[in-house]
Amino acid sequence: MKFETVIGLEIHAQLKTKSKIFCGCSTEFGASPNSHTCPVCLGMPGVLPVLNKKVVEFAIKMGLATGSVINRYNVFARKNYFYPDLPKGYQTSQFDLPIIGPGSVDIEVDGKVKTIGITRMHMEEDAGKLVHDSLDPVSHVDLNRTGTPLLEIVSEPEMRSPAEAYAYLKKIHLILRYLDICDGNMQEGSFRCDANISLRPVGQEEMGTRTELKNMNSFRNVQSALEFEVRRQRDILLDGEQVIQETLLWNPDKNCTESMRGKEDAHDYRYFPCPDLIPVQIDEEWIDEIRMSLPELPDQKRSRFIQEYGLPEYDADILTGDRDLSEFFEKAVLNGAGPKKTSNWIMTELLRELKGLSVTECKVTPEYLGSLITMVEKGVISGKIAKTVFLDMMETGKDPHVIVKEKNLLQVSDEGELKALVEEIIAAHPEQAEDFRQGKTKLMGFFVGQLMKKTKGKANPQMANKLFVEELQK
């Protein structure tokens, strides 16, 4: 029997506001436990929440960026459940009247573009964090995260493979980063994902019994967890048994899922409108104002890089896969460097030396990289020496012109000087010279190599080749 995989994702993106969604407490990560709290986010009796306008603005931005419906009238609701890190005993969220309605994003897997529907997006507050003691059987509660603003993005169950889920997750992450409304840090919990997955016989319209996957703190873990769950559910169904609806945790150490609890349905949360918050009403003028402030989005920038700079699709994918990297590239090109050569330098030398760090942490400025590439294009230094200069730039952050001058690395392009050395090398290697004349043209590399040794790599390689050909053919 063949089965079809059905996957839907619920993404929680922590919005980059300085204060929490309903109070003025800081959202800064890493503070000492329970230091960023107040009576409002602690849920003390008699306090009243006040909505952070920036949260609404960020939600609208994401809605516009995904072509979604902006619900000008939306309502906050209370989602009731008990958990030790939820001080109020309920979470202030949105239910039947969310701020953002249907939308979609395009993903590409194996060269095929597919549109994935977005069901809704809604604003809500985050819960706190339990810190489990590894030495004693106790858990500590840190409520600093309580009340930080989240945008929950719920997809349609339209992904048919873990690879599609991976691509969708990356696309949402990329759009959030381009909009600069979420830092996207999965390790710090500011970008989290829950996945609902089920299997059904091919051709069946009715959904199978789903499980929910949690505790996935990387893109790779999401894909690995879904791949494992596909295999697990398939084995259960092939054995004639029923999949149990439950919430599962992903254990990356054992590479398997583990049962956490039975999965609740929406009615278990007893949603009702929050009496402490009035409905949110958004006027069209504000939406238009936010629309005008949107940056160039990933798909638009990718198309422009291909058309304007003549880059291959592969290069454009890499460069636009990170907003900071795309801006670095454009600044280098504006400094006079050729687009394709700049792309090559970024994708090989720069990304290799960054070793996973952000380009914003790099000591080499885009202007300096552009200058270095221009020096190579103009024949001021050779490509080999440029790589040495680049390593020095990565370490010191110096201007390449300063490094070249300090280390006397200017390329030797004086024809008279090089010709004398070429004649000297040919005279010292008569056998190789004769073999070259007899048709062993690969020996050109040997002769140029000898010249590079004598000039410490500073000889102009194009001129060197020309002079050797002329002298060896005499």
UniProtKB/TrEMBL annotation:
Q: What is its EC number?
A: 6.3.5.-
Uppermost EC category: ligase
Q: What Gene Ontology terms for biological process does this UniProt record contain?
A: glutaminyl-tRNAGln biosynthesis via transamidation; translation
Keyword Ligase on entry: yes
Q: Which GO terms describe its molecular function?
A: ATP binding; glutaminyl-tRNA synthase (glutamine-hydrolyzing) activity
Q: What does this protein do?
A: Allows the formation of correctly charged Asn-tRNA(Asn) or Gln-tRNA(Gln) through the transamidation of misacylated Asp-tRNA(Asn) or Glu-tRNA(Gln) in organisms which lack either or both of asparaginyl-tRNA or glutaminyl-tRNA synthetases. The reaction takes place in the presence of glutamine and ATP through an activated phospho-Asp-tRNA(Asn) or phospho-Glu-tRNA(Gln).
Family listed: Belongs to the GatB/GatE family. GatB subfamily.
According to the record's subunit comment, the protein's assembly and interactions are: Heterotrimer of A, B and C subunits.
The record's annotation in HAMAP family points to: GatB
Spell out the protein name for this chain: Aspartyl/glutamyl-tRNA(Asn/Gln) amidotransferase subunit B
Write the lineage as a comma-separated list.
Bacteria, Pseudomonadati, Thermodesulfobacteriota, Desulfobulbia, Desulfobulbales
Name the encoding gene, please.
gatB
